[in-house]
Every structure is written in structure tokens, then in C-alpha cells.
Design a protein that fits this description.
It is built from three helices and eleven strands, in the order αβαβββββββββαβ. It has 187 residues and is of the alpha+beta class. A five-stranded antiparallel β-sheet has the order 1-2-10-6-8. The longest helix has 27 residues. 17% of the residues are buried.
Length: 187
């Protein structure tokens, strides 16, 4: 029995010694790889970029001759709106008030039509709609696809039917003004 106990103690000592040796060897072994976690943190963004011509610019219509009052006038504005959006979006437009104003005189805003231009500088997708200006929000572009620096070229039109009507004829000479606001809204 003493032999049996002695052999058991020696066997346990040998196992312990071998285990310690293996652990020590693994602890001093060189590592050949490391792992790093990389996070990409996203936020929803919709922005009318600073390069947009519509941001702070002026569109001018000049009526100086009889021919001007008897014709359709158009002003094309490349790069009118440049939009970056992480989601599909709409663009709406509205006038600040119901009239172009010069002092106490006024011209109704519905003399002006705003049209999205296909081609040209336009890279924006979606369904375009011509908008007869009003103080109510109206969709100019519906369902535009998300993207970065998407461009919309606009054409401003005063049709001959409006310029040769009492909406414009008979008004005192001068500059009539109106603020037009464009808003991009994520879907």
C-alpha cells in the first residue's frame, strides 16, 4: 500500500510538472495576430448643399418692351439645388406670401411656374412636377433616390398668358419681390 501511495504521489507530481511546463511555454510563445473592432457610426442626413444656386440667389424677369409683355419669359438656373440625402426624399416649394410686392402694389405669385429640367446639370431622380407658385407647399420632385451631391436644374417661367393679363399689365413700374423656399424632406 505504501508503494501504491508513493506511485500515486509521483504520478501526480509528474502531471503537475508537465502541465506547468506547457502553460509556461504557451505564455511565452509569440503571437502572430491581433484583432481590432472597427465601428462605422451613421446618422441620417438630408441637406441642401451650400453650392446650391437657389440658396441666396435672385432670379430676374425684365419687362422693358411691348414684346416682353407679349411673350413667354424663361430663366434657366443650372445647379439650382444640390442635395445630399441618406434616404429617398421629396423636394417641396412654396412662396412666402400670396403676392410679389412693391410697397403697397402686388402681383399674384401664380404668374410664375417653376419647372424641374431633365438633362442639363440635373442628376437627381424622382418624379418631377411643374409647380404654379403658391404659398402652399407643393411637390417639385417626388421620390428622389438617396445620394450625394444630387443636382436639380430649374426653369422659372412666366407664360405670355400671365404677362399680357391684368395680373402684370397696369401695375406701377418697379421691382416686385417674393421669397421662394425649397425644402428637402426624407421619406
Amino acid at each position: 500500500m505504501k508503494k501504491w501511495i508513493l506511485l500515486s504521489v509521483l504520478a501526480l507530481a509528474a502531471i503537475a510538472f508537465t502541465t506547468n511546463q506547457a502553460v509556461a511555454q504557451n505564455a511565452s510563445a509569440q503571437r502572430t495576430s491581433a484583432t481590432t473592432q472597427v465601428n462605422i457610426n451613421l446618422s441620417d442626413v438630408i441637406s441642401i448643399d451650400r453650392g446650391s444656386v437657389a440658396d441666396g440667389s435672385t432670379v430676374e424677369f425684365n419687362y422693358n418692351t411691348a414684346a416682353d409683355y407679349n411673350s413667354t419669359k424663361k430663366v434657366n438656373v443650372p445647379n439650382s439645388l444640390i442635395v445630399t440625402s441618406t434616404k429617398n426624399f421629396d423636394i417641396v416649394v412654396k412662396a412666402k406670401n400670396a403676392h410679389f410686392k412693391k410697397g403697397g402694389d402686388h402681383i399674384p405669385v401664380d404668374v410664375l411656374t417653376i419647372k424641374p429640367v431633365s438633362g442639363g446639370t440635373t442628376t437627381m431622380t424622382g418624379t418631377p412636377s411643374d409647380v404654379v407658385l403658391s404659398p402652399a407647399k407643393q411637390k417639385l420632385i417626388s421620390g428622389a433616390a438617396l445620394g450625394s451631391s444630387l443636382v436639380l436644374e430649374l426653369e422659372y417661367v412666366i407664360p405670355q398668358a400671365k404677362s399680357s393679363s391684368s395680373d402684370i399689365l397696369g401695375k406701377p413700374a418697379g421691382t416686385y419681390t417674393q421669397k421662394v423656399t425649397y425644402t428637402a424632406t426624407a421619406l
